[in-house]
């Protein structure tokens, strides 16, 4: 009797590509789901859930993302200094004004696995507020959303 063996992608065999995403006018959650799929490698036909088989993603114009509804004023981002009473909070409007990269990073982080693999996949995401980025040498391909 013949049994077929399962294919398991080794991290060394995964060919990593670079993609460029223009987030101008895109809804935060919708663009974050597409980015998370690319980071995890779900668009790759050799996708293996427990292996880092995803690609690199460079996001530009993160300061021009769009929230639907009243989320600009209702959504709150929290951070903690580690000291007693050190809980700080900002609305999405304030966060977009001060650190727009962190808005997209937080959205994508919530869609990745909550383990060491997810942390490793998040390092392949590069987010920039403007149109300039320092990854021209990698020749990123435009990713249509």
Question: What is the helical fraction, as a range of percent?
Answer: 25-40%
Rounded to the nearest angstrom, the radius of gyration is 18 Å
- Which parts are unreliable, with pLDDT below 50 for 5 consecutive residues or more? none
CATH level 1 name of the domain at 17-67 and 97-135 = Alpha Beta
Average pLDDT, rounded to a whole number, is 95
Largest sheet: 4 strands, parallel
Globular, elongated, flat, extended or rod-shaped: what is the shape? globular
DSSP, total strands:
6
Helix-strand pattern: EHEHEEHHHEE
Estimated structural class: alpha/beta
- How far the N terminus sits from the C terminus, by CA atoms, comes to 46 Å
CATH superfamily of the domain at 17-67 and 97-135: Ribosomal protein L13
The number of helical runs is 5
CATH topology name of the domain at 17-67 and 97-135, in short, is Ribosomal Protein L13p, Chain: A
In what range is the share of β-strand residues? 15-25%
Instruction: Tell me which CATH architecture of the domain at 17-67 and 97-135 applies here.
Output: Alpha-Beta Complex
What topology, given as strand order, has the largest sheet? 5-2-1-6
């Amino acid at each position: 009797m013949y049994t077929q063996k399962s294919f398991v992608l080794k991290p060394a065999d995964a060919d990593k590509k670079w993609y460029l995403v223009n987030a101008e006018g895109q809804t935060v959650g919708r663009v974050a789901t597409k980015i998370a799929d690319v980071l995890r490698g779900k668009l790759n036909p050799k996708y293996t859930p427990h292996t880092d088989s995803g690609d690199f993603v460079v996001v530009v114009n993160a300061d021009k993302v769009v929230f639907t509804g009243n989320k600009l004023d209702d959504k709150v981002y929290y951070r903690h200094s580690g000291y007693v009473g050190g809980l700080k909070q900002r609305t999405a409007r304030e966060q977009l004004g001060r650190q727009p990269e962190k808005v997209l990073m937080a959205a994508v982080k919530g869609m990745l696995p909550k383990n060491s693999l997810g942390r490793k996949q998040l390092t392949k995401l590069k987010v920039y507020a403007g149109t300039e980025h320092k990854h021209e040498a990698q020749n990123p391909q435009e990713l249509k959303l």
